[in-house]
Amino acid sequence: MRRKRKVSFKFIYFIFTNILIALSIVAVVYVWALLYKYENCQPENHIEAEIASLHTAARDGSIWNKYTFPDTGAAQTVFESGDLREQYKAAFAADTVTYALKPGTYSENNLVYTLSDGSNTLAEITLESIGEPVTRLAVFTFQEWKVQEVAIVAQARDYTISCPEDFSITVNDILLSAEYGTMQEDGTMLYTVPGLYMVPSLEIRDHNGQVASFQRSGTRIKTEFYDYSLTIPDTLMVTVNGTEHPGELMDNGLHRHSIRMLQNPDVQITDTFGNTVSFTGGNHLPLTYCTVIVPDNYTVLVDGEVPPESVIIVADHPDYVHVQGYAENLPKLATYKIAVLKDGADISVTDKNGVPVEWDKTAHTLDLTVIRTGASMPDDLSAAVDVLGIAKKWSLFMSADLAGSNYGFWDIAQHLIDGSYLYDVAYKWSRSVDITFTSIHYLQDPAFTNITVDNFLWVTDTCFSVDIGFDKNMIVSGSPLVDTMHSTFTFVQHGGQWKLMQIKEIVE
Prior knowledge:
Elements: H1 9-40, H2 43-60, H3 63-66, H4 84-93, E1 98-101, E2 110-116, E3 121-136, E4 140-152, E5 157-164, E6 168-171, E7 174-175, E8 181-183, E9 188-196, E10 202-205, E11 211-217, E12 220-224, E13 226-233, E14 237-240, E15 243-245, E16 248-249, E17 254-261, E18 267-270, E19 276-279, E20 288-295, E21 299-302, E22 312-316, E23 332-340, E24 347-350, E25 365-367, H5 379-384, H6 387-398, H7 409-413, H8 421-430, E26 441-460, E27 463-476, E28 479-494, E29 497-505
Parallel strand pairs: 5-12, 20-25
Antiparallel strand pairs: 1-2, 2-3, 3-4, 5-9, 6-7, 6-10, 8-9, 10-11, 11-12, 13-17, 14-15, 14-18, 16-17, 18-19, 20-23, 21-24, 22-23, 26-27, 27-28, 28-29
């Protein structure tokens, strides 16, 4: 009897294992072939192949036999007089051509790529899809492509260049003249170079001949430089890289410092109070400044300290220019040009009696040339001198209404000092032809109305001033006429009497 042969487990395992290995090899080969086909279907492969073709054709000189260069006409400017075809051929022959998907051109059936040499757009390649997309293994979608068109791009563009007015620019080795530029609101020049097909070669130099850097964004070119502009009081000293910068004096008494350099400058600002700050641009500078004009017997303090003499200018007081020589110790005017490199510095002013002066601390000028005290005439002084009566008499004298020889000169002269400025004015008026042309008139009753006598001020122990105002009412040619006076009258003590020295009209 024949025995039945048994199949061993090892044999079955061996057969099963080999089948698995074979299936695995088939799967790997299939996936590899799938990946290879997927990779070959990528559109970039066609672009790179076309770039290689352009590169080869440019090197062997056959490029314009295989590709069409667009007609640019004869509109090239003086800044780009070379052969564009040769420039493009040189660009394709180099190893610097790159590509990128053109923004906004993607669709299911077409792709457009731009070719560039890093500066110029040289060409556009359009790919067209072949058939429908196919998906394998659920994740691999295949879409085959072919080159539909290779278009050389040559488009004229206008380039703008922004730089300071005193900089020079050469475009493709040709100096750019002023006719190509227009002044901008910020003080820079904007030059326009029209009709360039290729990105130009530029060299920009400052007023010292140093080469400046610049940034290009598309067709806009902007020169890189440091430009600081400061408008500050002239008592502040500005140094640039250790050298004092003079600045430019403006009509308002401030100094303008325009600092323009290619490298970042070291700008230091120093005040007269020992403060120094570094300026690195921007709109904020810690600063408190004010021009204070006061009588020299007033006290001005900055943060409780007396300002240095270098910021104080003392001059004769214009209100007492004709009183000089007739009164002693007349006050002068002191002008304090205060500028402190500090926010919120305290500038305080007190009068000759130590009384603080209230004023708007945000103002940049405090002018106490004219002081309005609001005070009335002291009774004892009013008894000694009739200031209103003298003012009225002067007004009547000026309108030829005083009785006596020479139109009443000797009547008004008793209140003046012989040889003084006002005495000479009255004397010349009484003997001039002009007084004879005074219009024929007569005074109304009352002759003087709206009378004010105020703002009394002791200038010195022997000199005072007072503001007097009134309307003198007259009839001229049958019609009423009002002559208004509002002036500051200054008196000095002379020979035991108070004499009128000066009349200054008050201009509101």
